[in-house]
Amino acid sequence: MKLTKTPQEFVDESLLLLNARPSTTRITTSYHAATAGKGKLTLKTYDPVSGALVKFRTSKIAVVGRLVAGLNRLGRQQARVPEPAVTVAEAPSASGTSTPIPGQAAPPEAPKSKKKKKKGKS
């Protein structure tokens, strides 16, 4: 059993296990709620043939989003679906607006807000 310390380490180790035994490896998640609104999320990648187990636990909500993205990668690997191609978006220009895509209408401009003066001692 390998208890991983980071979400990235869990995803990397799980990918290795999935590559080695894609037909028998299983990924499971479990959540145990506590009384104070906090809970523990546990993820396991297990292969019953070899007995290999990769485990990760967390109670931090910020980590859960990273884990969901990692599970997406693991699911794609297990289903033998290729990773989508990543395209680099064009950076905004100096004026803060981006160049419109040909054939697409330009987005409407946001209304400018007026600042109110604070009343009180000067």
CATH topology of the domain at 2-79: Signal recognition particle alu RNA binding heterodimer, srp9/1
The largest sheet has its strands arranged as 1-4-3-2
Structural class of the secondary structure composition?
alpha+beta
What is the element string, with H for helices and E for strands? EHEEEH
The rounded distance between the terminal residues' Cα atoms is 67 Å
| Shape descriptor | elongated
Description:
This protein starts with a strand and ends in a 44-residue tail after the last helix. It has helices at residues 7-20, 61-78, and strands at residues 2-3, 26-33, 39-47, 52-58. A four-stranded mixed beta sheet has the order 1-4-3-2, with helices on one face. The longest helix has 18 residues, at 61-78. Helix 1 packs parallel to helix 2. The model has no long low-confidence stretch (mean pLDDT 76). It has 122 residues and is an alpha+beta fold. The protein is elongated, with a radius of gyration of 23 Å. It has a domain at 2-79: Signal recognition particle alu RNA binding heterodimer, srp9/1. Helix content is 26%, strand content 21%. This is SRP9 domain-containing protein. One of its GO terms (cellular component) is signal recognition particle, endoplasmic reticulum targeting. Residues 5-77 form the SRP9 domain. Residues 113-122 have a biased composition (Basic residues). InterPro entries: SRP9-like (IPR039914), SRP9_dom (IPR039432).
Summarize this structure briefly.
This protein has 122 residues and is of the alpha+beta class. Helices cover 26% and strands 21% of the residues.
